[in-house]
Amino acid sequence: MAKITTRAENYSEWYNQLVQQAEMAENSSVRWCMVIKPYGFAIWENIKDVLDKMFKNTWHQNAAFPLLIPKSFFTKEASHVAWFAKECAVVTHYRLKNDPNWKWIIVDPEAKLEEELIIRPTSETIIWDSYKRWINSYRDLPILVNQWANVMRWEMRTRMFLRTAEIFWQEWHTAHATAQEANEEALRMLDVYRDFAENFLAISPVTWKKPAHDRFAWAVETYTYEPMMQDFKALQAWTSHFLWQAFGKAFDVKFTNQNNELEYVRWTSWWCSTRMVGWIIMAHGDDNGLVLPPLLAPYHVAIVPIFKNQEDLNDIMNFLKPLIEKMDNASLDAHSKYIKDTIKVKYKIDSDTQKTPGRKFSEYEMKGFPLRVTVWKRDLENWQVEVFNRITEEKTMMRLDDLVENLEDILLKQQKDLYEKNKAFREANTYYVNTYDEFKEKIEKWFIFAHWDWTAESAEKIQEETKATIRCIPNEWFVKQNDEWVDMISWKPSVWRVLFAKSY
User: Fold this and answer.
1) Helix, strand or coil for residue 111?
2) 387-412: per-residue pLDDT in tens?
3) Distant-in-sequence, close-in-space partners of 241: CB < 8 Å, separation ≥ 6
4) Angle at Cα 490 formed by Cα 484 and Cα 493, nearest 5°?
């Protein structure tokens, strides 16, 4: 397997080569779209499985809504149109026909739709059209509905998993009787995502609110997660929005409250996507390939027997029976605030005689298998195996019975070590600055906590001059220096630091 470009040489090229050589995805013949290959999709499936259980443990349900949305629905909410108009793909006809003269397939001009249909860039309009039929009374609320779906946004600058025209994601659109209940829902899901990031993705993000000028359209509050990638940029993977009554009013969704009065329904939405796979790559990967959190890895252990003939292989496999029996019954505790689950340990035995041991080692390193167990015939008499830890890159000789006894603990320690490594990296590359000169010097490589006067004008000027943006207004837990100072640009008073960074 060919070596990939190092992160130091070209971070973007390193990412693209890793995605392809780890057999995660490839570019599609449909420009701007990707093909997610089985190994990459297995990671996404593991993410979906855990999140879906967390969602259901917080009283949410799944549903499915149409892929095609009548164009007239978009005109009911003007800011919605403005947000997505340039990215919408439009269906105008419903049939093709064979042209007998030119012998090719053409759009049938007689099959033009009476109303054009939009391939969903997001599902608010079609969902709220349904909610209008579902909601009459406060007794019908709340509605806590999610769908796992694909959406189409006609992105012109793409990168696999991070930004493509077709996006695989989940989107929640919940309806509530009161503003307090709706905001509590948005905050609850912020916490669910945070829990998942820390305990499963092994990523330590900075989190809390977006500034007013950078909120999602219609949002009263937008809550966000901003982890640091290894090139010191932020990569937003999900958001949670408290959206007030915009769609209730646009689609005339009212309910009778407990005082027998009509009110518009309050609304939240929140989403995450396959961008999380990109998170894992860019936060944990190294110059040898993927590094996967064990709780989300498609496989946990690669077993590579080294043998000369079938007799050697038989002896090695007999020797490994205790380990194989252990793995057949082993599971990892996946416990956090929102989930109590077990994840079955999965393994692969590679006795392929067409590949050299070195090629096998490179392949499993590239794909990020947390553990690789190598067994030579000579090691049988000492009852030991070679264990390579992908997280620490340490290679050790272990007695087989020690590995059997401690397998789950080793994998769970890897999960913890990966999180601590990511957290330490972010903290070591985060600075508090007070002056604009300091800011411009450090923003090239680091996360910066700096004072801001809460005006869009100051934020826009900083972005124009440095390409850095306000990623979020952190909560108190992150802002350790809540001191009075002044904005770097306007010199207006400021008592709260915000997070600045360059981003994807």
Assistant:
1) helix
2) 999 999 999 999 999 999 999 999 99
3) 186, 215, 216, 218, 219, 221, 222, 223, 268, 269, 270
4) 20
Asked if residue 350 lies in contact with residue 299, where contact means CB atoms within 8 angstroms, the answer is: no
Q: Which token pair is 212? A: 């007013």
In angstroms, the Cα distances linking 239 to 247, 337, 344 are 18, 19, 30
- Look-up of token digits 């956090």: 336
Positive or negative torsion for Cα 424, 428, 432, 437: negative
Measured CA distances, 77 to 81, 82, 85 (Å): 7, 9, 12
Q: Are 286 and 391 in contact (CB under 8 A)?
A: no
Residue 206, sorted as left (phi over 0), alpha (psi -120 to 50) or beta, turns out to be beta
Q: Within 13 Å and on the Cβ side, how many CA atoms surround 3?
A: 5
Strand ordering across the sheet containing 221-226: 61-62, 143-152, 166-176, 266-273, 238-242, 221-226, 206-209, 469-474, 497-501, 447-451, 430-432
Q: Region 281-290: what's the mean pLDDT?
A: 98
> How much is the pLDDT for 488?
86
Secondary structure, 3-state, 362-413: HHHHHCCCCEEEEEEHHHHHHCEEEEEECCCCEEEEEEHHHHHHHHHHHHHH
The SS3 of residue 89 is strand
Report the DSSP pairing between strands 25-27 and 34-36.
antiparallel
Q: What is the pLDDT of residue 501?
A: 97
Closest C-alpha to 143, from 282, 253, 50, 37: 253
Reference 348, options 402, 404, 305, 288; nearest CA is 305
Amino acid at 242: F
Q: Where are the alpha helices (DSSP H) in 23-169?
A: 38-57, 71-74, 78-84, 124-134
- The two beta strands, 447-451 and 430-432, are parallel
Token pair of 444 as six digits = 């090239």
Which value, to the nearest 10 degrees, does the dihedral of the CA atoms of residues 204, 210, 215, 216 take?
10
Distance of CA 214 to the CA centre of its chain: 20
Cα–Cα distance measured from residue 243 to residue 179, given in angstroms and rounded to the nearest whole number: 9
Sort 195 into a burial class: Cβ within 10 Å, 0-12 / 13-18 / 19+: middle
| pLDDT tens profile 208-221 | 899 999 998 778 99
The CA–CA distances, whole Å, from 504 to 112, 283, 429, 457 equal 39, 13, 18, 22
What is the maximal distance between C-alpha atoms in the chain? 82
Structural element, H or E, at residue 265: none
Inter-residue contact 207 to 223 (CB < 8 Å): yes
Cβ neighbours, 10 Å, residue 116: 15
Which CA distances in Å does 227 have to 12, 305, 404, 438? 17, 39, 35, 22
**DSSP letters spanning 280-320:** HHHHH-BTTB----GGG-S-SEEEEEE-SSHHHHHHHHHHT
Collapsing DSSP to helix, strand or coil, 139 comes out as helix
